[in-house]
Protein 1
Amino acid sequence: MSVPLDVTVGGVDLRSPVILASGCAGYGAEWNGLVDWDAVGAVALKGVSRNPWPGNEPHRVAEAPAGLINAIGLENVGLDVFRAEKLPALADFAPRVVVNVIGRSREEYREVVEALDEEPRVDAVELNVSCPNVTGGGMAFGANAEGLRSLVRDCRDATAKPLWVKLAPLVSDVVPCARAALAGGADALTVANTVPAMAIDVEARRPVLGNVYGGLSGPAIRPVILRLVHRIYAETKAHIVASGGVDGWEAAAAYVLAGARAVTLGTVLFQNPNAPREVADGLAAWLERHGFADLSAAVGALQQ
Amino acid sequence: MDYYNELAAVVAAEAEGDARWLTLRAPRVAAAVRPFQFVLVRVPGGGFTLPRPLSVTAADAAAGELSLLVKPVGKGSAALCALAPGAEVGLVGPLGRAVAPPPDALFVAGGIGVAGVFFAVAEACRRGERPRVLFGARSASQLFAAARLEALGADVTLVTDDGSRGEAGLVSDRLPEAPPAVVACGPRPMYRALRERLGDAVPLFVLMEEHMACGVGACRSCAAPAAGRPGFYFAICQEGPLVDAAAVDWQRMGGI
């Protein structure tokens, strides 16, 4: 008998705490045939903006020690095509659908959130206020607590759906940002986005990425994100989705002990599309070994 | 989509100059893969976050085997070249679009680019055709798998920059009069020269290459600038890797 993995995160009932991370997950359907959807609780779809965004000049990814630096630039098809083509493709999709939302202005965020409120297939909205790869949006909101609170409030007023906020990792203190998002009405916090980074090709003597700078993901950032999850949980007891370098069940278990109710899998999918199944099974076995009745019992359950 | 995630056993690792002709036992991918498709191969040994996209150079569905031609250009490809028979390597595929080459197309390969057209040439030969192949490289040592290519029964012309084997010069200088279409795999300067020589009259199809992560169109890493859509890109793993050269905005590829 294995311990059930179902858990409620920020108003969304998940059958598994394994969430495919926004960006890596695409629009979900791309991974059909490679990912075992039975192991997945939710998919956080690629950031959607009001109008299509073209993304950055190549190269868009660079390998880093125990990680990956990306500067995709939030390429996406825009709200209209997303609603007309991408959401309908998920009609028979068992995992919950979380839609990541991006914008260059407060009005753009609000407009997209409002439109998604009408979509029955959308189970939650995740505000991306922390992408390091675009100017004039994203991170500009994530780094300023008051700006963040008021953006989240605007979006909160625009939807009845569960609202998650994906925070930036590289701020002097993450707790005021977490509090601001919660004060604005966030139901859960995704902790965190990628860490601003760079790679240089020393033979070409050029930055590897077309955008020069990118965001670091993968196991390299996991200890940093683990601390952020622990800090935010200790200070706020918020519902947290841990996002950063989960490459197996042990990483997921560490995040749960630090205070996360769910974890995202992103970069690991490129090496191992079967990782969602392995993490779900490993987590269930670990919960059982430690005598937890369910996943929520293990959240924040560090020994004193 | 019918993708498979297989743990493949290395059946043979044969030298082709400083490259390796790796034959892997991967029955599901081998049975499904078509010319111009590729696999994402996980580099063994740890320390690599990204799998490596490699053209499937040959496939034998009955034997459950496929072959990859790998040149060591970086640490990842060097690690793959070091694989010995008996080793295991994870791969995902077949990825990319399976496209039938235009009838009577001339195949043009540059160096390790032969890996991208070999399968299509082999299939044409198997159908009883005798496809023309123009295979160029800097020198004889870079004409990887030339003997295997000739053994297929294709009409192969070898060209080297330094004349160390075959005719001296560039493939773009050796194009026959008005081929019905050209399918090319090689470095970008070769594509530029082919575009200039062929003009708009001859359809040109090229295999594209870019840093890649997911291989299934999700992550948008492998972007190529789209012609006619200023500022926008297409994903090579999804629209390619073989694409009509007219679909690429070559100005935004840095002029090459």
Protein 2
Amino acid sequence: MSSTPFPTGPIRSCRGRTVAVVGDDIDTDRIIPARFLKCVSFEGLAAGAFADDRAELAGRHPFDRPEHQGAVLLVVNRNFGCGSSREHAPQALMRWGIRAVIGESFSEIFFGNCLAMGIPCLGLGHDEAKALQAFVAAHPEQELELDLEALELRASGGEAGAAGGEAPFWTLQLAEGPHRMLVSGQWDGTGQLVAHDSELRTTAGRLPYLAGFPA
Amino acid sequence: MSAGTLYDKVWELHKVAQLPGGSTQLFIGLHLIHEVTSPQAFAALSDLGLGVRHPERTVATVDHIVPTTSQARPFADPLAEEMLSTLERNCSEHGITLHGLGSGRQGIVHVIAPELGLTQPGMTVACGDSHTSTHGAFGAIAFGIGTSQVRDVLASQSLAMNKLKVRRILVNGSLANGVAAKDLILHVIRVLGVKGGVGYAYEFAGPAIAALSMEERMTLCNMAIEGGARCGYVNPDTTTFAYLQGRPHAPCGEAWERAVAWWSSLTSGPEAVFDDEVLFDAGTIAPTVTWGITPGQGIGIDEMVPTPEQLDPEERPIAQEAYRYMDLQPGSPIAGVPVDVCFIGSCTNGRLSDLRAAAAVARGRQVAAGLKAFVVPGSEQVAAAAEAEGLDAIFRSAGFEWREPGCSMCLAMNPDRLEGRQISASSSNRNFKGRQGSASGRTLLMSPAMVAAAAIAGHVTDVRTLLDTPSTPSSR
Ligand code: SF4
């Protein structure tokens, strides 16, 4: 479990070990089974991360393997986080230690939940994702460096040489809006929304259902 | 880019501001909350020193954690009790209406808002629950949100959103006898895939959709999210207006006429432009059952579990996982697969017409020996209406249990759950691994009438064979 503080302010980079969870359509019921949702606070959710998959694999799940302890980057495949809107899923991942998720694609609600917590979800192509997962499997202790401003992921120093010559390097995708929000630190948007109260009143004023459909 | 669709019109009307990140601040007309995804949002709100901006546009109920046997307080499960009492405290502190147990209006959030007339055409609806897409049945733009966004809506009655593309799902023809809206949506997801709708709102249109009742449209839109589409909707029409008229929160008197005029003005016109369009023929759809671990893994009742060769190469890894987990053989028929538990309920299929369809199958028949079958009405109003017409008695005498309203074994946060490797026939919406409360439990999704048929037969079976041969005509 992580000692890294939860995200605050601008998110520009992230460095550390990586853990890969392989498979398409990994739903939020698998990321955190419903029984862990019986709580009124997100504290303590780390234990629920992938709980049933981990139990089934009896210690062989990536989240249990010693070489991935302390990982801050998670690599996944397609449609990660589909299903339920439960923010408990990214909360469980964050509380386990994850600070960024890199994958082929994400469900929209999961992506939005992560964004609201300052956890970037970054895209990369199918073959690149496979290559990255293979790299992580081969070099589990290698620290990777995520440069969120440049949208690049690279293995630098340490074992990178052992990976053979050139340090591996991946280009990542992130839509412009969320990218700007994260690097500028404006991802925690409640303040911005509250600040537009007069605009909010204007909008409310043109919605007839708010006034009982006046003549 | 879409233009002139209901989605575009409602989006434009609800715009508040452009946000620095590039997204749009959107006014939320109706905010629904429940006990699972709201406590942390209220806590965050008080950390920020903020109040609820529009408590009168926020409505609460309790559904996910409530027991369906005895609902006496305090609940036997102290965690469930703590969640409900936290919701009660938050609602009373902030002046939010809570439709609590025994109020006559409690139930699954996506069942009660429509039946109270809270959900109306042209609204934006948000709820910390992915099946908020249900409310699109009324021509509302309705989507599920996470807890941070629940906090945002509480604080500002608005959300930062990015506009979706719009895909029209045009359904021609008409559904055959014994084929339900559930079969239609399972078929659509089977064809378009569970990722097919990512980035889209689904507009369901065409003669087959126009012919659906409001409850059927809710079933359809409910599962848009299972196809990856964050919202699905149907343009409002006379069916919509007839459903709404006279409901507690619906406009009345002269306001009613003005409301109908406004609602009608929002529909996608003939000039509407869609980003994409897909055609279906309703007449070709059979009762559909899932065999795997995603809602896209569905097949017609007469079909075989697909072999890897029959599947797109990209679908094969998850199919392999599904064969193993479900213990079903590729190439084997789905009909005849024995089931242990039959569950009729949920926000997909826990409404009065669903219970009627299931009761029509159960009437005068008996649940197979050794099988557990239970019916959980979607709300207190549904329960009362069903009891008033004797559906509870039909179910009970057939050997089904008749329970109190709630989400129940749709996600098994209450005591209703599968045990071990049990396999269920379920009218709910998700067949994910472990969804129904056992880490190795298995789920076959199908329509409520098909669940009732499975309960009678003891295995998956084509409900149409039971509809053709009424068992005891005198039992009515
Ligand atoms: S019935 Fe199931 S899907 Fe619907 S709100 Fe409840 S738990 Fe969610």
Protein 3
Amino acid sequence: MKAGENLPTVDLAGVRAGYGSGEVLHGVDFCLAAGEFVGIIGPNGAGKSTLIRVMAGTLKPKGGTTSYPFLETGAGRRERARNLAVLFQDQVGPLNITVREMVELGRCPHFRPLQWRPSPRDRQSIDRALDRTGTSDLAERSFADLSGGERQRVLLALALAREPRVLLLDEPVQNLDIRYQVEIFEILSELNRKQKVAVAAVLHDVNLAAQYCSRLIFLRGGRIVAAGSPRELLREDILEDLFEIRVEVHRLGQSRAVVIPAGKLPG
Amino acid sequence: MKKDLRLERKAGLSRRLFWFLLLLATLGLAGAALVLGSVSIPLGRIPEILLRSGAEQGGNSPEAVILLQLRLPRIIAAFLVGGALSVAGTLFQGLFRNPLVEPYTLGVSGGATVLIGLGILIFGPDVLLLAPLLGFLGAVGAVSLAVILTGRSGRLGVERLLLIGVMISFVCSAALVGLVSVAGLDRFRGLLYWTMGSLAGADPAAVAILLPVVGVSFALALGRAWALNALALGEENAAGLGYDPEREKRLIILLGSLLAGVSVAVAGVIGFVGLLVPHLLRRLVGGDHRVLLPAALVGGGFFLLACDTLARTAFSAQGIQFPVGAVTGLLGGVIFIALLSARRAR
Amino acid sequence: MGDLREADLEEIVRLRPNLILISKTGNRKAVAEALAKVGLNVKTMERPNTVAGYADFIRELGLLTGREARARELSEKIRKEAARLQARTAADGRVRTFVQLDAGPVLYSAGAGTLVGDLLDICGGENIVGDRGRAYPALEVEEVIAAAPEVIVVCVMGRRGEAAVRDWARFPWVPAVAAGRIHLLDPDLICRLSPSLLQGMEQISKWLHPEESVP
């Protein structure tokens, strides 16, 4: 199963999923291909986080199937963890461990059964992850001491340490300064282009998403209402439908567009 | 909560220093505990006594018996119980991601006390002979109940578990008050002493039970160190790292309850150790469970040994054997508050 | 008489006893006054902590209950026996004794200021607890061992008492253990305020000085 450009990595078919007795996703078909950078966009409550969870395998769907074609059949949890990294930012509190120790955690799936400390190979990956996220100089500091932006980057390093082929992120740049938002997008973008890591991220900022993602998914009310390239999807009618506000889309040159909110919808 | 109480990371050398000091202090303390007591046995004679005791015929020399049958088991038991409670506290604090959780939170002490109390109510004070067994069963029973009640949907929600555990503790307290009102305080005097916790009953048999149980549980817990670190990131992130959160949770609860249960069986309810020591150590050595768990074992053992030695020698001339639970509470509380204030002043 | 428990006032009133005895210890005053108000015959008395005081107690009780003669007889008997034992002690000397009141891991004993302590003193025992300034001091096992008692009286009921007696076998060089002079005493005999105190006295004196056969 060698890397073709469009090799599917995570494949959702007819997935219905929810928590408790409710249902949040009502029949979603979605396939993440290798090398894609997909932005998942939608209003609150649309089921974006749920979608990520199902893709990551941490939430079992009530209907439909989730499959991982890029893994060998019968791959277990750890095998999946080695190749697919998911990060839920908000669950991580101010832990009093060093940055390096945190990123070491990212190598867990690669540890042999009784392995106690990271092996030299592990250390390589860790160093590389730290390097890529620009957090090498933070390595010996306590995670709890870091600023929001630094923490996000460290968590990203944690995800990268395992050298995954797929990266799933739930609002990775929420609450960050624009500078850090851009930094992280740049890192993700480089990963995506150079290492061909498939990235799927739930994003709030349509403009940034449009700038960096190769594909966008609009999610609303538990269904995918639109999917396609940013060029295709950044249209006033689609956006107004999605967010229920008026928007203006301004094209800047050939390939870029900017979305500006323009007040409430009439009626 | 976030900013003021943090400690900067110590370099690797400092960690070695920490361990060296801790182990040295523990050995020193053990030596002191061996020497102290109403029968004074000078330190210099101890090795000689220990060596000769093997060869002694018939009745061993009084000093050898005091050392081997009374003091040494008590010292070892104090160390193991303190260690067990601290490790259990660390496990639970890591699991619930709550620094106020202690080993008894899930109803361990309540269950143990109520079961023994019921036994006394039905069968009379003689039941206290079986206190260790009943205590253990009650402790493990209470936790099992909490787990069963929480995990009905298959998923063991830690917040829910905590709530249910606390509720069970309350119910047990109320039940105990009820029992006492029904049968009169007299009958339960023995139980009252038991709930105050004491290491006076630690004999070689107790050590023979403690050593394997604590040893194995600790080893298993240490094996889950990475899992605990991963869980600290949140259950879903841990799952993303390849762990099965449900399985890990259950295993951790099992180990923690075993440790707490066996402690309660041997020594009654000794509070505060399982709360203070992990909390303190987290500040000192950080949240990595590979270090935290062994540190808890030794640190907790040291702390309880110190408290117990103090409890039995401090006022023995006046005929008071302080309950060790009171010493842990007082000493621990003072240390804790002092440290908190010192941090803030910085 | 007997246990001084929490009083269920209503129950007491309902039973309409002829006489209520309340010990002076604790804050029973309020209870005493409340009951007196209802018209019951209430008498507060000190709990005796010496044998002599106990004898007085019996006499007072006799006066109150109208059984003077019997009470006086019992009281005299106790006094005489106490005197006899004290005289004998002067002649035969004292026996180092440890009285164990509790089966639990911590050993509680009775000191000089208690009824049990006084009893022991009269019967010719030398309480190893000595003068610790507390009525019921707590001791470590090794303290008892260090004091090398010649007799150990275990004052605990039931199986726990038996287990406690057996436990002492761990220390065979202790004089009491070596000589097999560990005795189980029913706590009711000495810990309650009943005529059985006399029995208790007899028991203890027999154990301490077995060479004296009391016919």
Protein 4
Amino acid sequence: MTQTNFISKGKAPILCCIGVRAADSEVRDAALQMASAEGVGWHALHVTPVLRLSPAAARTAHEILQRAAQLGATTAIRKRQDVAGAIIEYARDNAISRIVLGDRSTRNGRGLGEKLMRRAPELELVIVPALRQEAPERQRVAAKSALGMTEGAAASYLLSLLTLSVVTAIELLRLVDPVSLAMLMVLSVALVALGGGRRAAIATAIGNLAIYDYLVVPPRYSFALQDTHYIVTFAVMLTVGGLIGELTARLRVQARIAQESERRAHALSAFSRALSAQGGARQVIDVAERTLSRAFASVVVVIASNAEGELDFEKDGVEFSDDDKALARQVFAEQRVLGSEDLPGLPHWGMIPLRSSLQARGVVAISIANGRRATLLEDIRELDTYASLIGLALERVHYVALSQDALLAIESERLRNSLLAALSHDLRTPLSGVIGLAESILYTRPSLSTQQREMIEEIVEEGQRMSASVDNLLEMAKLESGTVVLRMQWQSVEEVIGSALANSRRSLALHKVMVDIEPHLPLVQFDAALVTRVLVNLLENAAKYTPVGAEISIAARLCNDCVELSVADDGPGLPVGQEEALFAKFARGQSESATGGMGLGLAICRSIVQAHGGAIVAETGRSVGARFIMTLPLGEPPPVMGELETLANDT
Amino acid sequence: MQTTPELHLTAVVVEDEPRIRRFVSTALEAQGWHVYEAASVASGITETGVRKPDLVVLDLGLPDGDGLDLISRVRGWSAVPIVVLSARSDEGDKIEALDRGANDYLTKPFGLGEFLARVRVAVRARTSAADRDSVFSFGPVELNMATRIVKKDGVELHLTPKEYRLLAVLVLNAGKVMTHRQLLHEVWGPTQTENSHYLRVYMGHLRAKLERDPAQPEYLLTETAVGYRLVGL
């Protein structure tokens, strides 16, 4: 992918190359001036040759870079023997077309400029003359490399040739004896291997052999072999040459791989940094598409999935055929990278799923333009790494959005709760005042007349009725707002019936109350306060809608997987066919009844029972009156520890 | 409503709402109490410290802080009965107030008759606790702490050790609302304070043995979601 050249026009950033001299700060300043004059970004790069750099020199370079970073540059340090190569690579990775270079920014500064020109003619070089304070003058230097891609190989063979001539010269001048010459030849092979690679090394070894045979081995100046023990010498020389060539070549390959993986690691970390700076899915996708399109020199598109798990093919300037879409959906659904088996029928895009830790977030598609089909599998493999970064970034922004929503929900719930609390306080406090002050008149001396007493008592009763209505309203509001948290505990049915009867004692004073609880009922899990409220509402309804002296019965019994609690009366019963409608809010048995109430009681009962996973129904019979039945699910009550043996004795 | 004057007793009423403070004071004064008023946590603590009252009536929602803090502070130096008034119907506040040492609570709006009854119980519980007798009785039940014998209608009953202990704790705190946590701590120990279902089971046993109608208890009363209270002693 680095073979593709990029000539970005207009807003391309500027790269300045920082060496190890203090004067290189001028290069930095020049780049800064250019960048700010044109309003473009700038980078500062220092390449450390692997082997030679004193600590002091490194410090200088780092200081210059640090200042550059403070001045807004993107800074980078590369460890590479091939300085020019590192610069070119960095420029290509960052779509940089202009490079600012000190005149003697490295020990072979001018050489570096020339190397850059030769190897990357598309780059525009700006040389800052050394030790000059004025603005840099731009020199556009353009040169084409004559050797092109074969340049490296040619140099290797040239080196080989050179070595051979040296060896020949040494022999011709009789500088050393034949044995030392053989040693020199081995050394020469090693040197060539180091500089030119395996083929040049083997060529050198063979050339050496020929020279040795021709010049040294008798008969001299002939390739003929009289003494067969030279065959062993030749074999050894050839083998050693081959071995050295092989080993050196392996070393070179490993070094190249290391460099390549370092570059990839840099590119990946830069990519992941860029993604992590993005706050929304839109921005993540934009950055990913821009960066990858540049890096792969092809159109790369991120097709994200929405909340319903469908891919969003709406992309600016990109049209997907139905086949493409089908392929994308398949890759997305199966969560696999396309393999070679998919290639023959492959339409126009290579597809890679965006994986994250929990679910697929979409698909990355790379356009297979002319000539890219050959490298497709390799591209896809590399793209896969980027895809997982994109997937993770999308997941991160997804959860950021989720947590923001959750915060909002918590905030609005808090607001609702405090509103209800304030409402409750503001309504209950004046009511307490009315009821309490009225009542306190009863305690004052001199005592009131009977008539006055009765009026005061009516004020108190009205106040209490109003207070009950306020309670119902607030309770309904609380249940409606969904902020009620059930305090589920293992409760005794008998006890909750007892509490309900105690709470509605005053309303039931003029009625006959029957209680029928099945013995040995298990504990049932519910919110005691709320279930007591249901029973109180039912009992008070029964008292309200039946004549004085009517019988009201409350019963509890076991049914299948549930406990059934019922409140029945022998009053006039419910309007036939309206039983369900009673549970609606503000519903009342008779619309113009003189009986007070807002019709919230049964709606509250139903909300509470349903919140417990139970059910409540009303029924009416010809002879019996109204009956309200609620069922609560049975569970597995926890054991009671501590006194089991005595309990057994008791029961 | 019967009115039995309780003479020479002092009460501090801590309540920021003037109308409620007024009728509570009026009602207490009509019963012969000498009443000092406070409208904030700070002045409530000062008044309680200075007046050494026989009763504190406390509103939980005060302008300068939470009435719960006052309970903790006062309990640091005094066992004076504290009756809490609360506009909040949330059981959590009541439980918290009781756990911190309040004797009783009333939810606004409350009836004055009920309020005065609770005040009487709270004050009497304190005096009876002072001259502790070993024989207690409520309704048909008689409990002898010295012999650990419990009788109903004169007939000796068999209680298990835990049942006896639960009854004894309620008797010793008669009139006071005991939270689930307090009862579990007293009867089952500090590690079992979350197992409120133990109480439901044992309270059921006690009611079955001591009450005339366990479903409509007269003495072992339930304070829904808060705890239990023994009355009638």
